[in-house]
Amino acid sequence: MIKHRIIPTLLSSNCKSAIKTIIKQNEELLKQFDVKGTVKKIRGKNDKILLYYYRLIENTDLKDEIIKENNEEYINDKVLSQVMLSPNSTFNNIKEIKPLEGKKGVTFSQILKNSNSKDLVTKNFKDNKYAMDDEIYQKVATWSNILAHRCENEIKSIAGSINFDTLNIEDEKGKQRQLRKMKYEFSKDIFKAHKDYKSSIDYACDLKEILKNIDDYNDNLYAEDDINVKKMLSLIKKYYPDQLVDKEFLKKYTYCLDLEDTCIDFFEMKNIATKELLLYQDRIKEKNKSQGEDIYEDQNIISFIVPDTIKTKDKKPTCRVVSLNKSEYDKYIKYNNNYDFSNNYIQMYSKKYNIDEQQAAEYLTDSQTGYRISLREKKALMAKCAISSYHMPLDYIENFVEERDLKNINKTYPPIIENLAYTGIPLYDITPSPKKDDFLSKVLKDQENSCLENKNKYKDYVDPEEKFNKDCCISNRFEKILNERSK
Fold it and tell me: In the predicted model, what is the mean pLDDT of the chain?
């Protein structure tokens, strides 16, 4: 059976309208978070969002891509491949599902329930019924982020095929250099153009109408009377004054602008779900402190705010929100000072301190208090702890913390959290099978023992966790080494 491309589905009017409605509803619920009964309402809404997301993803190329990426992550590891590989997805013919009595069509829950596929994507959604509230916030954020990046990657792909004009550059090498730059920066330019499109009447137009009628327009678009075309040409000219716009360029540019609109909406949904998670965690901790209980009682997810050097498309600072299973954190992460560096992690330090990557890698190695873990252990840690990590604009977090008076944001963390924050995240499994769970536990036995040893070393301090984090803080140790060797 034919698997559909996810992008046309995400660009459909029904999907666009649904996501914008979801955002408005969740924004209102977020405002009322502290009102009795609101958390329950948010849970109901988020359950429906995840069912809707599954409906979007079912029988698409995105589902197959996620499964393929997961299997490529583990296929060459003879140990982890025994438990971490996913079956391929099964095509599920939605037309064969009979509507419930009194319903005009099948429900989203029916689509998920009737899926015969055993793949990790389907399992991830079916597991939602076992998930606690904070795990659901994490899931909504993660899937919103996945869908947003799928749109973003499509824009980057289209950028590579656009024919840009460089009329004022005669030198061929200079022209090729400028073309590469224009293709590379297209995503940022379309982000800026989208802001103009949304905020100015001079550029506001019907993108769907342009795409629908593209073949019927005058070959000389500058002679076209259609107001939508005129406004789009005006917007293009603002960013590409030398561009001679033909139908192909207009079509691709308009398509990308439409994609950007959807991309931004999914990122916003990710931001809202993350705020819900942080607010939920803060309120649980405050309640438990007031009752003299363990502050993490009834909390399944623990989150950390990790600084980053990457900027948003409008050049705003970002941070990474890292969330993971609390019980697994206590066992494998809390007192873990071992390490493994991804390229992104090394590049972050290189950029932050304006040194080359080789130096950054050397200083990072010298900044560690533990030992280098194997790639297998790193992957097992990510899977066992169900780690998610994604960017948020820093001002979103800071403004929200101040606005809602959050007192329990975790800004200090074990060193390995910073390492893992910069690692590509596969889809996590919150309810692994006993076989998978036991298998990963055996792979991570050395990490568990390492944490126990460190815990015993620090047990006599007033606040052992804080002391451990301070002693093993990578950035502090890195800066000390950098200053010493720069003299």
Answer: 93
CB 68 within 8 A of CB 62: no
Quote the DSSP letter at residue 4: B
At residue 388, the 3 state secondary structure works out as strand
User: Each residue of 387-445: pLDDT tens digit?
Assistant: 999 899 999 999 999 999 999 999 899 999 999 999 876 788 888 999 999 999 999 99
Residues 6+ apart with CB under 8 A from 468: 335, 337, 414, 454, 458
Low-confidence ranges of the chain (pLDDT < 50): none
Provide the CB-side half-sphere exposure for 233 (13 A, CA): 15
Kindly report the number of other CB atoms within 10 A of residue 141's CB atom.
Answer: 25
* pLDDT tens-digit readout, 14-24: 999 999 999 99
What's the CA angle centered on 288, arms 286 and 293, to 5 degrees?
A: 145
Burial (CB count within 10 angstroms: exposed 0-12, middle 13-18, buried 19+), residue 154: buried
**pTM listed for this prediction:** 0.95
How far is the first Cα of the chain from the last one, in angstroms, to the nearest whole number?
Answer: 66
DSSP 252-302: HHHHHHHHHHHHHHHHHHHHHHHHHHHHHHHHHHHHHHHTTS-TTTT--EE
139 closest CA partner among 80, 203, 54, 251: 54
